Amino acid sequence: LQFLYFIGCRKPAKRCKRNKMRFDTRHALYENITNGWSSRLECRKVLEGHRGCVNGVSWSTDGELMASGSDDLTVKVWGFCGTDTQMELRESVRTIHMANILEVQFQPGSRDTLVTAGLDGCVSLVTLCSIEEARKLSSLNSSAGRTTKIAFQPTDPNIFLTTASRPDCLLLTDLRTKHHDVIATFPLSCNGVDFNPENPHEFALGMDSPTVKICDLRKSGEKCVVAEIDTAPELHGNGCVSSVKYHKNGREFLACLRGDRGLQSQGDVRRVGVSEKRTLSNYSGHHNVDTIAKEVAYLDNHNSVTTGSDCGRFFIWNRSTGDLIRAIHGDSCIVNCITPHPDLPLVAVSGIDSSVKIFTLPPTDKRTMTDKGSTARGFANQHHPDAEPILSVSECVLRVEEASGIKIAGNDLVKQKNHEAALSKYKDLAVKLRFVAGSHATQNGQRLLLSACYSNMAHCAMQLKRYHLAVTCCDKTLDLDPTSIKALYRKAVSLSETKDHGAALVICAKGLALNPADQDFQKLEAKIQVLQKAFKKAEMGKYKGMFA
After folding, report:
1. In this predicted model, what pLDDT tens digit does every residue of 317-326 receive, in sequence order?
2. Measured between alpha carbons, how far is 408 from 428 in angstroms, rounded to an integer?
3. Strands 136-141 and 146-152, how do they pair?
4. 250 CB neighbour count, 10 Å cutoff
5. What's the rounded Cα separation, in Å, for the pair 193 and 161?
6. How far apart are CA 522 and CA 513, in angstroms?
7. Residue 375 in contact with residue 364, Cβ under 8 Å?
8. Which residues of 472-502 are buried (b: 16+ CB within 10 A; e: fewer)?
9. Angle at Cα 123 formed by Cα 117 and Cα 128, nearest 5°?
10. Residues 157, 482: Cα–Cα separation, whole Å
11. In the prediction, which pLDDT does 84 show?
């Protein structure tokens, strides 16, 4: 296979004019956008349809289609609809995998051929066909204990590498023969792989250690490793690299380091020079301990760096200065996958949720905002108007302590029946708690205080007969704690007071599902049912004479 690869290398095919024309309208929306767009991203679409964690996301070469692979063993293909950046489901394929899909990649230059890797050690070829034809699924490999990451060779769309574990090895596959070779085995697990875009023979391999191996595809066995770069000498061999990504210039790459609770390390991202063989920049503030699946990527014409975090956000830094630009909510639990669009200022984000979030610029940003003449450095300290402030750990602790004092003052006002002043105090508390918490401990304290804050705001709003505000506050509480019986009860009461008895009964059913023996909910449900019947009877009497 390596001989066929060597003699068959060729330049990648140019994008055909027809495919390019399809994106002309969408590109026109962003014609004035240059550097710095990563500081203004916002979630514009949530793609739902999977029934498990979405572990892999990939764009087709022309950027018109996006594929997602999930724990539900399906691959879903999404496409743009209209001239905006809205997307819709085009295809859903049940693969031959017997366990979680961990990776999905489009074959370069193709819109109907994908390759997947999974927890079952299988590498699957997925061919999307017309309705009249059967979909072709074939297994390329099933010998490994687990296959995790896939990287296509830049100059040959038929050759790709797959990292595998148990045994810990690297597989080379040719789609023309559907045959694979084990080109190297290692004493540690291989976690991430990426080719150098400027040197198609070279690839970087991240492993269960801080050392990244630089390899040559034309060699096999131990000889394929041409250099080893220790990305974190201070860890003395502890830790691991969960993913790697080359810069477009081929002279540097990113290594995403996983932390270790035992070592009190929360993980960070290192920018490493290939020729220098050392770390050039360090990007920190996020939390990478809970999963080994976090990806790292370049954004904004390779002027920004991004990765996911255990706090449910993805972090964006200025590549040159290392300054943190933004931390954006991308998942209810953990962000693992971050996949930039090949052409547009658009990013697909996924993690533990069963959905993919599409982040792009707000509608008013597409035509009215021009950043010509700006540089990435100029955006390093600019934040989105609605972005949460980014604080250090010590600042977070201080902010939580101040918030606790405000909560106590609000509670005292409630005891004095001064609900208007208490409501105002709780609003101040919500503002005080609006910040990015990097550590689990601070994040948990922030969530508990926010949950109590919105719950207390709902109570005050109910006492002031502002039932619509009470419903809003209950919703915010339930976003933070979906099992809050108190928030469900207050929401049901408030909805009933606004004569929305049907919605109130739905909330009662949710509360009783969580605690069937809750007598307060049982009494409330019975009371709302009586009120609903009386309301319907009154309405019928009111209009009875109109149609006589």
Report:
1. 999 888 888 8
2. 12
3. unpaired
4. 16
5. 8
6. 11
7. no
8. bbbebbbebbeebbbbbbbbbbbbbbeebbe
9. 90
10. 46
11. 60
Q: Tell me the DSSP string of 373-401.
A: T--TGGGTT---TTPPPB--HHHHHHHHH
> From CA 430, how far away is CA 453, in angstroms rounded?
7
Listed residue (215, 107, 124) closest to 159, CA to CA: 107
Most confident of 295-304, 364-373, 384-393: 295-304
Measured between alpha carbons, how far is 216 from 313 in angstroms, rounded to an integer?
35
* 158-162, 250-254, 290-294: the lowest-pLDDT one: 290-294
Distance CA 89, CA 229 (A): 42
Taking alpha carbons only, the member of 18, 119, 128 closest to residue 66 is 128
> What are the strands of the beta sheet with 335-340, ordered from one edge?
42-48, 355-360, 346-351, 335-340
**Residue 501 backbone dihedrals phi, psi, to 5 degrees:** -70, -35
Q: Which residues touch 30 (CB under 8 Å, ≥6 apart)? A: 344, 345, 361, 366
Q: Is the pLDDT of residue 393 over 90?
A: no
414 φ, ψ to 5°?
-65, -40
What does the alpha-carbon distance between residue 145 and residue 168 come to, in Å, rounded to a whole number? 9
Contacts with 111 (C-beta within 8 Å, 6 or more apart), sequence order = 60, 62, 64, 65, 128
Q: CA torsion sign, 252 to 254 to 259 to 264?
A: positive
- Residue 371: per-residue pLDDT: 38
Of 283, 282, 274, nearest to 250 (Cα)?
Answer: 274
pTM of the model: 0.66
- Residues whose CB falls within 8 Å of the CB of residue 493, separated by 6 or more in sequence, listed in order: 462, 504, 524
CA 141 to chain CA centroid, Å, is 29
First to last CA, the chain: 86
Dihedrals phi, psi of 365, to nearest 5 degrees: -85, -20
Angle at 287 between CA 313 and CA 352, to 5 degrees: 50
**8 Å CB contact between 189 and 207:** yes
